[in-house]
Amino acid sequence: MPSAAERTRTLVQSTCSAVLVIPGLDGADPYQLMPDARTVGDDGEVLMVFAADSPAARAATHAQDDELIAVLELTDVAPVSVPHRIRGRAWLSGWLTRVPDQETEPGRTVLRLEVGEASVDDLWGAEAVEAEDFVAAAADPLVEHEAELLQHLHAAHGAEVQGLRGLLGVRAEGLSGAGTAAVPVGLDRFGLRVRFTGVQCFDARFDFPEPVRDVRGLRRAMHTLFEAAASAPSGD
């Protein structure tokens, strides 16, 4: 399974929503505290693009050499329609500064968050993340494509995803008949997470034979997974 640091790094480098919380800016428009873009720098710092006249940019500029504490809050929502769509949240706290000579579009400025500590609370559980572990971690290789891949699986391969219940054994009881559904809600290099609903509602993880490195490897892993489900003994 991915480590807490890897999961946090993946959320930062994903398209999930983010808002920057800065003490003293409690009354600011939340939309003005959402970065237009973000990435992770070579040293593990989080680089965020804001409007040059945004409250966050003004606060960082005004602070100058003083230590300005800030928290980046991330909220991850499943890209498919499913009950309880929030998949996880992460928090990264540290010191916020303005990057003076960073190239960006006119009217935009780059802010740097040096991560001091982090935590994640997601479908895997809640864990604290040390700053050095976040810096050393790598985002999941499927992060850029996860949303479209899940949407494709849900729209074009719904029958195959539903068929994965054949790998659940006794857990599949109550998942047949009208009103049942199987929705893919998470995908990473280690496997697929599916939310089953019917008489009962639960998530199930389906691990790949080995971690995948890219979309091509994912296609092979999914084919193997669907074949295994198709050949599993029927519980009906």
From TrEMBL:
InterPro entries recorded: Haem_oxidase_HugZ-like_sf (IPR037119)
Domain of life of the organism encoding this protein: Bacteria
Gene3D superfamilies xrefs: PNP-oxidase-like
Protein name: DUF2470 domain-containing protein
